[in-house]
């Protein structure tokens, strides 16, 4: 039988940060089995496609990639192909019906089984395993406790919660990722401590609705007697509160993670506007490690459309919460998500969106033209679908407004000295490196001594475009903390 140590793998991700983080875990699992990264998909022995059904044309992209892999497998029959993630969770056995060369299909609740399922398929033939839900007690089902193969050494994602209790009409997440489950407070702090010990200085807390983190934990604990496990489950602040009032713990978690020795930057994505509580804003304001960046998805500026989307806030409420955050946090960048052409969106609704966008003065935004996702409420609103040309026109108008506000916010930074963490060589300019400011803005700086990935530097901003800044190095303030990987040549 072939030794696993001879095998190489490639993981391809089609999706959001949650999916990218799952992919890191899948790579970690495969490496724990002795596999090594392949130079390319075409050279890999094991190919995992980690899918997402939120993004547009997810099906087309997946089946396009599988078509290519069919030809590859015809020439190299020992190659194994696995499909996991949201689309696999949703489409299940349809994947192997449409693409019989797929060896393994797994869903969102059993990422931790990827390597075992591949081994099973090698011995017994094609496998499909989709679980209906994540078992809270099954800690391994959580991506964050699996071995990881991270893309960057100085920063890491930390999943604090999976699933979502909301029911936005356009979103498939609740049906493919299940209800919200928060990981224990103490486990997340310990995970960040371990990352910091490994040299990580920046963490991004991930969840579908991060600011409701912990509500489920405290709801469960309130019916139990107080005990020593409370601090691990819900943190010291909640455990020492005699009222045992159920509440979200996100603000407490931000403070605790900011206090971990070695962590210099804490980011999070995404908060839901309806749950952006004053405690979270306060925790952001008083915890210096929490970066001054808020990604607050708007989706639409029309109250009528927000209601049809089941978003749980009005445009006025959204702007009030944004104003409160801006009042509490100095120099905060704000980004958002907007859907153009949700079913039934009229010209008047769209005008409301433009008004809110202009008032919010976003630094940037991810904008999407509505496209129906099978299995969502919005997908059944056929009669109200907005004409494609109208959507394209609205999208372009929105882009123009956003470009204006993005350029204004960027130009306002010229002349400032910003703290930048270096990410690596610039993609298109060999003599430049890129880094990120605390506001998550991309900065290009001339490459130079000490500007290695993970180093911190002070940079004076000299120029600004819509999507990036340019600057001159003032000084390197900290070397990378992670150990440098030195390739070892075999004898
Ligand atoms: S809050 Fe809405 S958009 Fe976000 S994951 Fe939950 S259902 Fe989807």
Describe the structure.
The chain contains 15 helices and 19 strands. By secondary structure, it is of the alpha/beta class. It folds into 4 domains: 126 residues, Methylthiotransferase, N-terminal domain (Rossmann fold), CATH 3.40.50; 123 residues, Transcription Regulator spoIIAA, CATH 3.30.750; 121 residues, 2-Layer Sandwich (Transcription Regulator spoIIAA); 62 residues, OB fold (Dihydrolipoamide Acetyltransferase, E2P). Strands 2-1-3-4-5-6 form a 6-stranded parallel beta sheet, sandwiched between helices. Strands 15-16-17-19-18 form a 5-stranded mixed beta barrel. The chain has a 3-stranded parallel beta sheet with strand order 7-10-11, sandwiched between helices. The longest helix has 24 residues. It binds iron/sulfur cluster (SF4). The site of iron/sulfur cluster (SF4) has 10 residues, from α6.
Low-confidence stretches: 485-491
State the distance separating the first and last CA atoms. Answer: 26 Å
So, the CATH homologous superfamily of the largest domain?
Methylthiotransferase, N-terminal domain
Structural class of the helices, strands and pairings?
A: alpha/beta
What is the percent of helical residues? 25-40%
Whole-number total of structural domains: 4
Quaternary structure type = single chain
What is the CATH level 1 assignment of the largest domain?
Alpha Beta
Q: Describe the main β-sheet briefly.
A: 6 strands, parallel
Helix count?
A: 15
Shape-level CATH architecture of the largest domain:
3-Layer(aba) Sandwich
Tally of DSSP β-strands = 19
């Amino acid at each position: 039988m072939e030794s696993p140590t001879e095998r190489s793998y490639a993981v391809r991700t089609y999706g959001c940060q949650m999916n990218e983080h799952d992919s890191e875990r899948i790579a970690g699992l495969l490496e724990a089995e002795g596999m090594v990264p392949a130079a390319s998909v075409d050279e890999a022995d094991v190919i995992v496609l980690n899918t997402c059904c939120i993004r547009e044309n997810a099906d087309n992209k997946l089946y396009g990639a599988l078509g290519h892999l069919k030809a590859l497998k015809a020439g190299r029959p020992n190659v194994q192909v696995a499909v996991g993630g949201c689309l696999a969770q949703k489409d299940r056995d349809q994947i192997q019906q449409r693409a019989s060369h797929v060896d393994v299909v797994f869903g969102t609740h059993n990422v931790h089984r990827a390597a075992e399922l591949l081994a099973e398929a090698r011995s017994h033939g094609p496998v499909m395993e989709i679980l209906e839900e994540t078992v809270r007690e099954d800690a391994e089902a959580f991506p964050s406790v699996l071995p990881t193969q991270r893309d960057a050494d100085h920063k890491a994602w930390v999943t604090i919660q999976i699933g979502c209790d909301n029911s936005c009409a356009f979103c498939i997440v609740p049906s493919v990722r299940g209800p919200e489950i928060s990981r224990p407070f103490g486990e997340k702090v310990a995970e960040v401590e371990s990352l910091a010990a490994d040299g990580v200085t920046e963490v991004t807390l991930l969840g579908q609705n991060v600011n409701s983190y912990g509500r489920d934990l405290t709801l469960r604990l309130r019916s139990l007697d107080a005990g020593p496990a409370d601090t691990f489950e819900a943190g010291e602040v909640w455990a020492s509160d005699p009222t045992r009032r159920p509440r979200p713990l996100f603000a407490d978690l931000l403070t605790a993670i900011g206090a971990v020795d070695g962590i210099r930057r804490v980011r999070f994505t995404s908060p839901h506007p309806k749950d952006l509580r004053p405690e979270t804003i306060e925790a952001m304001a008083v915890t210096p490690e929490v970066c001054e960046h808020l990604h607050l998805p708007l989706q639409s500026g029309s109250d009528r459309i927000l209601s049809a989307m089941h978003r749980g806030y009005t445009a006025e409420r959204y702007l009030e919460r944004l104003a409160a955050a801006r009042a509490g946090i100095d120099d905060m960048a704000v980004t958002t998500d907007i859907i153009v052409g949700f079913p039934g969106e009229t010209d008047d609704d769209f005008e409301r969106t433009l008004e809110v966008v202009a008032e919010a003065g976003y630094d940037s935004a991810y904008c999407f033209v509505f496209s129906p996702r099978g299995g969502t409420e919005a997908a059944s609103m056929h009669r109200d679908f907005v004409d494609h040309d109208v959507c394209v026109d609205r999208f372009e108008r929105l882009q123009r407004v956003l470009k204006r506000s993005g350029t204004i916010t960027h130009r306002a930074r010229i002349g400032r000295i910003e703290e930048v963490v270096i990410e690596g060589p610039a993609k298109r300019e060999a003599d430049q490196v890129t880094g990120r400011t605390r506001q998550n803005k991309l900065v290009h700086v001339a490459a130079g001594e000490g500007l290695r990935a993970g180093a911190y530097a002070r940079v004076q901003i000299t120029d600004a475009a819509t999507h990036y800044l340019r600057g001159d190095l003032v000084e390197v303030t900290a070397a990378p903390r992670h150990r440098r990987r030195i390739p070892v040549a075999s004898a």
